[in-house]
Amino acid sequence: MPKRSRVNDIGTKAGMNVLDLRSSGEHRSVILVADDEPLIRNVATLLLQRAGYFVLSADDGDAGLELSRKYPGRIDLVITDVNMPGMNGIDLCSHLMEERPGIKVLVMSGADMREIMHKASMPFLPKPFDGETLKAKVRKILAAPAQSENDRATSELPRMNSSQPD
Predict the structure, then answer these.
(1) Mind listing the pLDDT tens digit for each residue in 137-147?
(2) Which of 16, 23, 50, 79 registers the highest number of CB atoms within 10 A of its CB?
């Protein structure tokens, strides 16, 4: 029986947090983190929350897409692992870029994919990474005009082979 995707607790509480943010008038960047490795996902989520971001967390691409579709507010950035069971990170980015124009992306992997991601004009973060590197990369991406990060057709996204290492 295939593993069923699920949205982590932080994601299921997103609607309540959105109402709280809107009522306070606070504007924080919203980041969706999708990674099938719990340690990476949880550490990234915690680091970004401590840096002041509102973070939604999903344990794979399918759950990330589900969470995005259920989340009523804007999502500024998706940070995703490339290789995950079910929907991979590239396909997740493709769907999100179609459904949420202007969303920015950051892909990460333990495999060296810098050249592939550079050709696809997608920011890349190699694993393992430290907290300062993650936060600096996120700040840089969020500060860039949306067009410079996302002015690309989804057909330009690289095709991923499921046998590539994570």
Answers:
(1) 999 999 998 75
(2) 79
